[in-house]
Amino acid sequence: MAGATFRQFPHTADLGIEVEAESRAELFEAAGLALFSLMVDPSTVSAREARGISAQGEDEEELLRAWLHQLLLAFAIGGFVAREVEVERLDRFVVEGTIRGEPYEEGTHRFEREIKGVTYHGLRVEEANGKWMARVIFDV
Amino acid sequence: MSASGSKAKELEVRRIGEVVWEISRQGEMRVPGRIFASEDLMADIRSDPALEQVANVACLPGIVGAALAMPDIHWGYGFPIGGVAAVDLEDGVISPGGVGYDINCGVRLAATGLCRQDIEKKIEPLADALFAAIPCGVGAHGAIRALSVKEEKRLVERGAAWAVEQGFGDAEDLLHAEEKGCLAGADADALSDTALERGRSQVGTLGSGNHFLEVDVIDEIYDREGAAKLGLSMDQVVVIIHSGSRGLGYQVCDDFLKLMVKAMARCGIRLPDRQLACAPIRSPEGESYLAAMRCAANYAWANRQVMFALAARAFEQALEISPRDLKMRLIYDVCHNIAKFEDHEIDGKTMRVCVHRKGATRAFGPGHPELGIYREMGQPVLIPGDMGRYSFLLLGREEAMRQTFGSTCHGAGRVMSRAQAKKQARSIDLHATLRERGVTARYRGFATIAEEMPYAYKDVAQVVDVMERAGVSGKVARFKPLAVIKG
Is A21 helix (H, G, I), strand (E, B) or coil? Predict the structure, then answer.
């Protein structure tokens, strides 16, 4: 993910992120990592266990949203926090990958905030001049 | 649709009353938009994309009267936060985004028999005891054991009564909650397995974000008669709990948004924002969402009932007193994010409509048959402010039935984005800032506390004053926080 970055953009009630990457797969990886870093500080997480994640979506935006939702569930249901996100297969409607991290433990991991949902509001995935860009708003 | 964070496109907004502003029908809008605000608040509102969201809500099929915005309105997703929309049951739509992820996010206010002096010197151990008793529920750790699916299904169909059956509080509490803590028409079979899984171990947990548990004292009384009837007096200690339906509710919203994005295409509904995804109320998707949403609403009531009982035990333990000395009793429990079938008068005719309240509180006036023990005095409404200032208790007035589909504001409303608030927090000592205001804080989320600092919010007094000037709800008492527990 050499060229992938994300930044928060101002949203009054919730949290918005803008992600840029060199490829579509990197975009999915960077957005995933952004989501985890909003919930738990990744520098406090060690990548000692792996979990498989997959998602389906009927268009570009829905696929990214569904992927992020599955990552959210890894934490919300599985209690798993990640510091690495890797996309292994990505076609038009399906994404599969692996996240590496460990089970969440209060005191060990620096908890930032709970994310309630990955919204459709202002959701965008675009490719321009060989770069990929996404905007996502999370409900906090 | 501007979700860009940039200033909303210019909408024509004109003042039509002392505290009422209107966006006239334009474009695809089916009804006008109506905003309750003072001139000062309107200046903030204009610089936020929220007004455009009011106009978008006015495009919903079946919407009646006007798309309303309370004075704490701010930019949300789909609906603005602080939005109220009533739709015709027969040809209208239901929108999960019009309720939100945190279905029945709400607040409850409990009075105690204690006064300021009883706790002033014990505030630190009291905050510790409350913090230990009420987890935020992150990382799959609950306050009580994980439920079996069968038990969880009973919970979502019974609401707060389930919690009472389990020994959390008593039956009297149920009379002091909107809908007596249980919406009829909940069907656990409308929930996905994922929704049930997310809810299993989160009963009795606070969540993070703007959720909190507070210990406050009454520092101002505006309506002596109202306060006396509610058994409230100066310096009395009260407890405020703000939380919702946790992961179960978030998942219901997510499941049905996905489904309704598809249903919209089938029904030929086009809207300016996908987050407003909706389906006809009288459609399989609409009915199924309502059955699931009611389950989530009931989960939230059970959740707040459990936390209320856990808080009482923490008080007794920290102060070494008996339940008889504590005398903790529920004043009222209201929801902020909900869609409910109600009767309202529209153009001189009584109609059954589905009222979406997204960051707005029901505030029925005196005489309303739904109010039970509060029928004579009107509905109590608790409006929490930011964690450093104060919160207000109001009573709904008859004018609410004429102007706002029986609704009022729900909180202070943010003025600063989370990113900005967090940035500002880097340069100050958060604990010292809160201590200066006389507030002892305990929190788990490092980002949460920074984003929720008092300066990120409007002054809630301005917000409740607008609704009082509009005649919709009137102030009874003000609460000053002494201890705050956050997730």
Answer: strand
Nearest alpha carbon to residue B411 among B440, B382, B373: B382
C-beta separation of B332 from B382 below 8 A: yes
Contacts of B250 in chain A (CB under 8 A): 76, 116-117, 139
Q: Which of residues 29-68 of B touch A (CB under 8 A)?
A: 48, 50
What is the pTM (predicted TM-score) of this model? 0.96
Q: Hey, is the C-beta of B424 within 8 angstroms of any chain A C-beta?
A: no
Q: Is the pLDDT of residue B128 over 60?
A: yes
* Residue B410 is a catalytic residue: yes
Q: Show residues of chain B in contact with A139, CB under 8 Å.
A: 77, 100-102, 250
A88 is written with which tokens? 């292994």
User: B-chain residues within 8 Å CB-CB of A105?
Assistant: 139
H/E element holding B226? helix B224-229
According to DSSP, residue B62 is labeled: T
User: For B340-352, what is each residue's pLDDT tens digit?
Assistant: 999 999 989 999 9
Distance, CA of B306 to CA of B142 (rounded, Å) = 11
Query: Quick check: A38 and B419 CB within 8 A?
Result: no
A120/B74 touch (CB, cutoff 8 Å), yes or no: no
Token digits of residue B104: 């029945």
DSSP B272: S
Cα separation of B286 and B40, whole Å?
39
Contact B275 A120 (CB under 8 A): yes
Residue with tokens 């266990």: A49
B341 in Cβ contact with B353 (< 8 Å): yes
Place of tokens 């708003």: A137
DSSP A133: E
The pLDDT tens digits of the residues spanning B53-81 come to 999 999 999 999 999 999 999 988 889 99
Alpha helices (runs of H) in B268-329, residue ranges in sequence order: 284-319, 323-326
Q: Which pLDDT does position B8 carry in this prediction?
A: 47
pLDDT digits (tens, 9 = 90+) for B16-61: 999 999 999 999 999 999 999 999 999 989 988 899 999 999 999 9
B445 touches chain A (CB under 8 A): yes
Contact between B102 and A116 using a beta-carbon 8 Å cutoff: yes
User: With contacts defined as CB-CB under 8 Å, which chain B residues touch A122?
Assistant: 1, 3-4, 77, 273, 275
What are phi and psi for residue B21, nearest 5 degrees? -125, 150
